[in-house]
Design brief:
This protein has a domain at about 10-200 and about 255-275 and about 360-370: Rossmann fold (3-Layer(aba) Sandwich). Strands 3-2-1-4-5-6-11 form a 7-stranded parallel β-sheet, sandwiched between helices. It is α/β, with parallel strands linked by helices and about 400 residues long. About 45% of the residues are buried. The protein has helices spanning about 20-30, 50-55, 75-80, 110-130, 175-185, 215-230, 240-245, 250-265, 265-270, 285-295, 310-320, 325-330, 335-340, 340-350, 360-365, 375-390; strands at about 10-15, 40-45, 60-65, 90-95, 135-140, 195-200, 200-205, 235, 245, 250, 275, 285, 300. The protein contains 16 helices and 13 strands. This is PRISE-like Rossmann-fold domain-containing protein.
Length: about 400
């Protein structure tokens, strides 16, 4: 039976469209769950990013606007948003904007203040310019569970959305808590709803360098190793403890799909949080490292014994005198090795992984997102995109 009314027009607005989550949401919204779900997709970025440089599909529905600055006052954000064509008609908002300013206890008060201000001012501006806003998804992550504090905090595994927050003193440094509290308060009694999407480390691609991108430094490490070392055996860049403990990484594509899926099913998702991972079982670096290296026709082996040679970031930096010529010889983007986030690889294959932190993803499964992806394939997809973008040879 048909109603005689035209199908409802859905429009997607993505904050932080050049980041690892926002880029993927922008990309997926053009085809997921169908190629016609959204009749307009707009990505907002802080830095200048043209469509060609974005590596996003050429699609007449897609527009990018740079100059986003959520640190400004509400009126300034309103003025910026009003530059977006037909901004008043946007229905689905995906918020993946974030300011990175250190880890753990370092500058945590500043980080909490900045990132909470992003959300509060962003929502205030959206309520003025987007009267048709129906749903707002928000990107959080493993910091919710205190992962950056390692074994200093106690947690049950697999971690679940229903587990209590990390108590003081470490919980006081987690900026996601005041952000979600603000969202819950701001959405109360409103016509729009929200959900919190909570992956751990995201495996993916960004058109510009990103401080939370694990695939890029790993891809560059392996590419450089293949060029400079005679042995095809490449050691894991972290330590033995990190190599064998469990975690739950997730492809950026699957993260994006959960954002979109949750936003399209408010009756199941409103006000809730959702873990997401590639697969429902725990994964260790020991399980995936050989397959990751295989992409480069290398043999992945375990970490070197302490004091016996270099691997990972120290090895890459020991060859920094060759970076520029290697980059030129391989016709890569200028300064690609200098700009990548080596310290994130070091953290995620070291201190950030020296304890079990696997996810329970039952909540996402329960609302209907049942897709999985092989954890090694997640890296290979990211490497394909990096290769096309001249980030790796």
């Amino acid at each position: 039976m048909t109603t005689g009314f035209p199908p409802k027009s859905l429009k997607a607005l993505v904050f932080g469209a050049s980041g690892i989550t926002g880029w993927a949401i922008t990309n997926e919204a053009l085809s997921y769950p169908t190629p016609t779900t959204f009749d307009s997709v707009v990505g907002l970025t802080s830095r200048k990013l043209g469509l060609e440089a974005s590596c996003l599909p050429l699609d007449p529905r897609l527009e990018l606007y740079d100059g986003l600055d959520l640190s400004r006052d509400v009126n300034s954000i309103v003025e910026y948003l009003r530059k977006v064509k037909h901004v008043e008609s946007f229905t689905h908002i995906y918020f993946a904007a974030y300011v990175h300013s250190g880890w753990g206890e370092e500058d945590s008060e500043k980080r909490k203040e900045q990132n909470t201000k992003f959300v509060v001012n962003g929502i205030a501006a959206l309520e003025i310019v987007c009267p048709n806003m129906e749903f707002f998804t928000f990107a959080t992550g493993g910091k919710w569970y205190g992962f950056e504090f390692g074994d200093k905090v106690q947690r049950l595994v697999p971690v679940k959305e229903s587990h209590p927050r990390i108590p003081a003193p470490y919980g006081d440094h987690i900026f996601y808590y005041p952000q979600i509290d603000a969202l819950a308060s701001l959405s109360e009694g409103k016509s729009w709803k929200f959900a919190d999407i909570r992956p751990d480390a995201i495996v993916g691609f960004v058109p510009n360098h990103n401080p939370m991108n694990i695939a890029e430094p790993i891809g560059l490490y392996l590419s450089l190793w293949k060029s400079l070392e005679s042995s095809p055996e490449v050691p894991f860049p972290g330590n033995e403890s990190a190599y064998t403990h469990f975690h739950s990484d997730c492809s950026q594509d699957l993260v994006a799909r959960l954002h979109i899926f949750a936003s399209l099913h408010p009756e199941k998702s409103a006000g809730k949080s959702f873990n997401i991972a590639d697969v429902a079982y725990p994964v260790s670096w020991e399980m995936v490292w050989p397959g990751i290296c295989q992409y480069f026709e290398l043999t992945g082996v375990g970490p070197l014994p302490e004091g016996q040679g270099l691997a990972g970031e120290p090895w890459a930096r020991s060859h920094s005198d060759k970076w520029d010529i290697w980059t030129r010889d391989n016709k890569l983007r200028p300064q690609v090795l200098n700009k990548t986030c080596w310290d994130f690889m070091t953290i995620v294959t070291g201190p950030f992984a020296e304890f079990d932190r696997q996810y329970d993803i039952g909540e996402a499964r329960a609302i209907g997102l049942t897709e999985s992806i092989d954890p090694v394939k997640s890296y290979h997809i990211a490497f394909n995109r990096m290769r096309a973008a001249k980030i790796i040879p």
